[in-house]
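Example 3.
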Amino acid sequence: MPKVTIAQNILAANDTIAQEIQRSLAVCGIRTINIMSSPGAGKTTLLERTIERLRGQLGIGVIEGDVETSADAERIEAAGAETVQINTRGACHLEAHMIRDALAEIELARIELLFVENIGNLGCPAAWNLEEDTRVVVVSTTEGDDKPAKYPQMFAASGVMIVNKLDLLPYVDYDVEKVKRHALAINPHLRIFEMSCRTGAGLDAWCDWLLNFAAEKDEQREA
Amino acid sequence: MPKVTIAQNILAANDTIAQEIQRSLAVCGIRTINIMSSPGAGKTTLLERTIERLRGQLGIGVIEGDVETSADAERIEAAGAETVQINTRGACHLEAHMIRDALAEIELARIELLFVENIGNLGCPAAWNLEEDTRVVVVSTTEGDDKPAKYPQMFAASGVMIVNKLDLLPYVDYDVEKVKRHALAINPHLRIFEMSCRTGAGLDAWCDWLLNFAAEKDEQREA
């Protein structure tokens, strides 16, 4: 079967930059979450709703990755978070050097939690280490329940899976239990949240988890 | 703004193989269509419904691209078409050498129309020339109406756009006219079909177009 391997030296150079970034962010006590999904699974809406709910409780920054346009960064900024847009002009994933350039534009002193919204793609972003504290993969009930089986690297590389668009479940053929079963078979440590960013269902549990997640770093720093 | 360019010599080598494939297929009078979309927009269901409708009228072959699993090839084969599965084991797009290897497994004498179902990805597949006779991009009403603006290369490189999942339109915020307007601004020659592969709405017009499309080659061959 044909196979394409990304040149190891490119990935190693990426890792070096990612580790430098992680050290700088750790000094500032900032935790980072890399959010990945297919195009249109709801990453930006998830961030909008999350920022609205946590405003005043947590300093949130967002690095917004898109092939083109700054429409998503404008949405996130309107929700109330410090935001920087990266346009990859064709590239299908974010790399560490792009994050480094974006961080130079953010006032880090005001941030406790940094989201990186990756390019909409269930493949390549999983192969690029950004030394994030965790990775979140968002799947939605309208994109078919075969995604963990078809894109296993994405689920193996994530710490959290969000099943979004629960409000559309009555209108589609989608077996949530099958998705959870397949994802957990690939990665038994996956934490799973089910939600509808449109109706708000399930967002409370996710936001509670985020507050705890951000606090973990504070404890590490104080220790 | 950061930019990643795929090495020109890799793309040139791909073009050479693609042109060889195109010459072989032209000799056999086979027309090819490269189908691309986000994961879960409905490429495989579109092919299932298309093959069921055109069975007996047109010899159809399918090269099925997936990162992992042969589930889609099994669905297509069950619908009644000659099918070969390519698993890219991580790669986010199909390349010409993969098509060449797959074609060695297909009995070309029975085929008039060859579909290549690309990896679910709105980015990279647009950059890889397979010397197909046309490209079809499938978007769906559940993935947000900003996709032409955010992934313009995909729409610039396609001859046809299918707007799928019309049956879910009452339950989502999706402006079909906006999608068509944005896509046509990028590519005024785009032919557009609106359909629901689930209910069958709009499939007749698409299948009529395919019959004409396949016949064009026969005329060229006879001329």
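Strands of chain A lie at 31-37, 60-66, 82-87, 113-117, 134-140, 160-164, 191-194. The first strand of chain A starts at residue 31 and ends at 37.
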